[in-house]
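Ligand: magnesium ion. Inputs:
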Amino acid sequence: MDKRIQQSSCMLQEYFGENVFNDRVMLQRLPKKTYLELRRAIEEGEELTLETADIIANEMKEWAMERGATHFTHWFQPLTGVTAEKHDSFLSTPLTDGRVLMTLSGRELIKGEPDASSFPSGGLRATFEARGYTIWDCTSPAFIRHDEGGATLCIPTAFCSYTGEALDQKTPLLRSMEAIDREATRLLRLFGNTSSRHVIPFVGAEQEYFIIDREKYLKRMDLIFTGRTLFGAMPPKGQELDDHYFGTLRPRIASYMKEVNEELWKLGVPAKTQHNEAAPAQHELAPVFEKVNVAVDHNQVIMQTLKRVASRHGLRCLLHEKPFAGVNGSGKHDNWSLMTDDGINLLDPGKTPHDNIQFLLILTSILKAVDIHADLLRESAADVGNDLRLGGSEAPPAIISVFLGEQLEDVLEQLIHTGKADKTKEGGKLLTGVSTLSDISKDGTDRNRTSPFAFTGNKFEFRMVGSRDSIATPNVVLNTIVAEAFREASEELEAAGKEHFQETVHRLIKRYATDHIRIVFNGNGYSESWITEARRRGLPNLPSMVDAIETLGTEKAVKLFEKFGVFSRKELLSRMEVKYETYAKDMNIEARTMLELTSKQLIPAMIRGVRLIADCVNSVKAAGVQAGVQEELLRELSDLLSEASEAKKHLEEVTASAEQHPAGRQQAILFRDKVVPAMAALRAPIDAAEMIVDKELWPIPSYADLMFEV
Ligand code: ADP
Ligand code: MG
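Predicted complex:
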């Protein structure tokens, strides 16, 4: 191998995680006793004494300063969808002799106090009772971020109100991890597993994104304010040739990705796979799966890094779910499995019949969970941008179903239909299932890209999540609904007692499979017939975010989340409020941007276009020549101009009246039902005009300029 190449791959091993205060660093730098106490806090949730926290904080500061850090920040994930941070330098009060000390105390490490009233809280925090706390999440390692502002020590934290309500994405996630840990371990004990101490959800999130040229981006107000194009005629070429997917990376993109990877590796993010995606200018990055709370943090780091590095390359990264109409939008596949602390994947079909019974119970419990709480899982992917993507033959429809693959579905069908078989026969059938299952684990199931929730060999892949969204919420829902199903199974097994264990397991598997097989669908999720079929099966179809939000307030949801201490009723209601407001605000910004773009740039361009053609008509006629074609164009463009002008007036009216409406569900509905159609009505004549007006006169870069010229 080329020496230089060899060197650079060896270097990777050296610099991977160099900016992370990870286990290796802690083991090296902390006194043994402190290290062990911290490990117990991370693994068993034991509380740290302030004394220990002081030692850790001081060492963390020393380590960070050696790497050039001057500031630290509590890094948290409020309900804005992005991360938040407030920087403090290590500087402490100057000494009397004029020197300064650099410090980070245990208290500063553990607790911060940002003003909670300035973040969305859905009424949980009013301005007069603004106290909120950020609390160190010692399970996710601190890291140093280098950017234009210098080096900053980022300390991952949870964000709660003074009264203990979660104001962020992370707190409920940590709570849900405890719930699934407790219930899954309890179930494992019943199957005779005495060695595994914990069960942890592992997640790998595949991130899709678009890259465009920064100069062109800056010429489009819609991209700047809303992250997507609100206008734009389709270019002659879209993604129909499928030549972009997995295509060779263009040099500019390749060098961008190289730097993204290097940055991520230094931050200990195991970026692994990268490729071109289906749409022109669309790409994907997938890391190796990690513990879900770390995966959630790392996904945020990935999104930030994608954006930051793009600016350095004169590029812009678009994370919106649907930056361009007419080509695929972006999502995030959330690959989820359950792993014990001693390395057993509970979703691995396994090799022995005994394990397979356990696997089948786990599998059917998950089916049950997903069927009962399909609405909540759908809601967890609800996002303004995702409304433009779900159901558009590029992403799953807004109906939750599970893809198991033919073999596994066949096993379930057998189980359902052999109910009258005696125990041995049932066991025999299960054995048949076993060989089928181990085949599956070897060969992998066939692919079904249209399914929102697909079993892919030893994990489930939830494909509905939007590209901008935190993966926290989907995993909170998954962890909690599966914890509930496990708890119910354990309760029945415990009640039946040891001597009836085997038959009870078989009975449960059969019952769950029978009762919830309706959620299994292996066909084409993009087809019209599936929508009809799903309705017949009674599966919920919630096409818009506004429909989905309601599911958080149902008694079913409140009972579920309260039972596992993941959300209180109050927290759920406040989150609903935040979401309705987010929907309304986002739509309002889109409508306002559209109006401004129309008035200041696009209608003037159309008028210039009209003038140009009119001049042409006049001069042609003056020359005594017929101007039929020119006149027709003139009429066409003038008609579009008046159509656009009417549509603009209408959009102005409906937007103003929706704005006036008090915040909440009704307002969100007004935006969806009145403003969204009015936006579409304005877009149509303007996109048509773009095809007529001279390109030189069109004031914003076209779709072709944006998607094909990077
Ligand atoms: P696929 O091609 O089926 O999507 P990949 O192996 O490319 O599968 O993985 C996609 C994502 O799923 C990656 O982020 C990967 O790390 C993650 N992944 C793989 N195995 C597991 C697992 N057991 N649990 C959670 N995530 C996983
Ligand atoms: Mg995948």
